[in-house]
Structure formats: structure tokens, C-alpha cells
Amino acid sequence: MNNPLRNLALLGSSLTSLLMILIGGMLPSAILGLSENFSFHIVDLPSSWQIPALLLSGMVYGPSSGIIAVFAYLTIGLFYLPVFHGGGSIGYIATPDFGYLVGFIPAVWITGRIVQTAKRKTLLALFISAVCGLTIIHSIGIINIIFGSLVSRWQQGVVELLLTYSISTFPIQILLCPAIVLIAKSLRKIQLLE
């Protein structure tokens, strides 16, 4: 593939990744639950599909497209439109959420690289890449919260912030990883990547 075609393919996959992240941020997550009378009902979860969409873009389109999409997403959210979970603008840098957004950058890269370098793109390899990406996002978010709390940047205490941003959401996002893996595997087959 010559350079113009490669660049065009990278642009297309980056735009697709950006759209996945933007749309994922607007979709609340939910699972099917079983009620007392054994009927199914939808249980809302305290998380959106934003992070799953981010991980999915790394697994399907690779680290380069994922990085470009994340930088575009952060630029749009910081300077143009309120696309983040709690809004947007340059003031978002001072919020506890921002560490998690910064974590998107290494997370999408690592997730994509794990899949890209895996000899066999098995469901387990995809699951491991998703969990690694998710762990990176939360690790950087937690570090930001701890440092911000040390300098009294927020009114809430560190425990309350960690409960709100990581302890209550991380297990839910882990539960979504098998769904991400199945979607990624299907998309990779449709696009003849496997």
C-alpha cells in the first residue's frame, strides 16, 4: 500500500474511532436483569459506553488510529463542544474527571498494541487488552485524584472521589469487557482483519 492510500485508511479509521467514542459517550449502559417473578428487565448501570467504545476502537482500528481519535476527542471537548461526561471546556482540566480522560491516551495505545502484536487474536487476548486499557485509565484517574486531593483542589474527600469515579464504575466496566470483546471480534472479521 502506498503512502496516500495508507494515510487515507488511517484518516478513515481515526474518524470512525472518534465517532465511536462520541456516540459511546451518549449511550448509557445497561444489562438485562431478572426480577423476583423471573421476568427480564433492563437495569441501568452508572456508566456510559464511552470507555468501551474507546477500547473497541483500539482493538479494531489499532493504536495509531486510536491515538488520533483520542486527541481529536480531547480537543473537541476542551475547546469546542461539551462532549465529556460532565460537559466540557478548558475548565474541565481542573475536575477530578480529567485524569481519566488523560488516561484515554495510553489506554487506547496499549490496547491497540496488545491486539496488534498478539500472534493469535483470540477472545482471551482481546479481553486481556481491554482489561489492560481499562486499568490504565483508572490508574491515571486515581493518581490525579490523589494528587488533587493532596493540594485540596476539590471539596470532596479522596475516599468519596475514589468511590464515585473508580470503585463504583470499575467493576461495571469490567462486566462490559466481554461484550466489547465479542463486538471487536465481529468487527475485525467483517473488516477482514482476521
What features would you describe in this structure?
The chain has 194 residues and is mainly α. The protein has one domain: Arp2/3 complex 21 kDa subunit ARPC3, CATH 1.10.1760. Helices cover 68% and strands 8% of the residues. It has seven helices and two strands; from the N terminus they run H-E-E-H-H-H-H-H-H. The protein has helices at residues 3-26, 50-61, 63-79, 98-117, 123-150, 158-167, 170-190; strands at 28-34, 40-48. Strands 1-2 form a two-stranded antiparallel ribbon. Helix 2 packs parallel to helix 4 (98-117) and helix 3 (63-79) runs antiparallel to helix 4. The protein is globular, with a radius of gyration of 17 Å. The chain crosses the membrane at residues 12-34, 54-83, 89-111, 123-150, 162-184.
Give me a quick take on this structure.
The protein is mostly helical.
* Strand count: 2
Calculate the mean pLDDT score and round it: 89
Beginning-to-end CA distance, first to last residue: 18 Å
Oligomer: single chain
**Radius of gyration, taken over Cα atoms and rounded to an integer in Å:** 17 Å
At the third CATH level, what is the topology name?
Arp2/3 complex 21 kDa subunit ARPC3
Shape: globular
Residue ranges: pLDDT <50 for 5 or more in a row? Answer: none
Name of the level-1 CATH class: Mainly Alpha
| Number of domains as seen in the coordinates | 1
Give the CATH architecture: Orthogonal Bundle
Secondary structure tally, helices:
7
